Amino acid sequence: QVQLVESGGGLVQPGGSLRLSCAVSRSIFDFNAMAWYRQAPGKQRELVAVIPSGGSTNYADSVRGRFTISRDNAKNMVYLQMNSLKPEDTAVYYCNVRRWSDAYWGQGTQVTVSS
Fold this sequence. Notes:
mainly beta; 52% strand; four-stranded antiparallel β-sheet; 0% helix
């Protein structure tokens, strides 16, 4: 079984920054892709950023240029650096890893952007 634990969420003012972290319980080399999703109240969960094991990163149009996904293979960690945050970025953020048809999720971490 794979466990994912997110951290780093919180309350931040518009224009501020946060870095989310995701600790993965096994080697991230085992997975085809790592990603961050988010779900705002009353909305469907949406893909924010993805980093495939052998390809380039990709981002939702709404966050491109502001968010950066990265990985630390030695620590089995996945990160999401979020800059220039906007109120519309408010959501629960979920870490996701995928191995072929199997997908694993963390419990989520709340990000609230408000003045």
